[in-house]
Amino acid sequence: MEGYRKEVEPLFRYLPWLQEKQGKRVSSNYENDKLASVSFPVYDSTLLGFVKQVQQTNLTDRNYVYTYYRQGIKTAEDEHRLIAGVTIRNVEVLTAILSNYICGGMRKSWLWPKAVEEGIFLEILLKFKELFTKWDQPAGVQE
Questions:
Q1: What angle do CA 115, 118, 120 make, to 5 degrees?
Q2: Among 123, 121, 130, 129, residue whose Cα is nearest residue 49
Q3: Which of 44, 49, 73, 78 could be stapled to 68 by a disulfide with Cβ–Cβ 3.0 to 4.6 Å?
């Protein structure tokens, strides 16, 4: 867990923002009537900061698709259920789901805001926090 702690703990600063924004829109589409162009997404700056910070860690795995296949993840409900059930033995589920949204958001503009609005990023960070509390203690120390 120590390796994960170094990567994840800096992301905990986003927890209050993620809690506040759960269920709310964190992006909009920019459209200019004067220009005959396609609209494009405009993201909340905190969301972009979070995504950039995650991208600078080793938490993203471009092979997340294999975990999705092995775990049978097909829906957001599957993701929520699996996040809730993660233990020290299957932490890769958290990084796979995180990778799905972070890497996938580079191609599908709706994934980053969806992960905030549906609480996916929040649940992942809270699960990591729970795992750190439970498993990352000196030997012989029990809660």
A1: 50
A2: 121
A3: 73
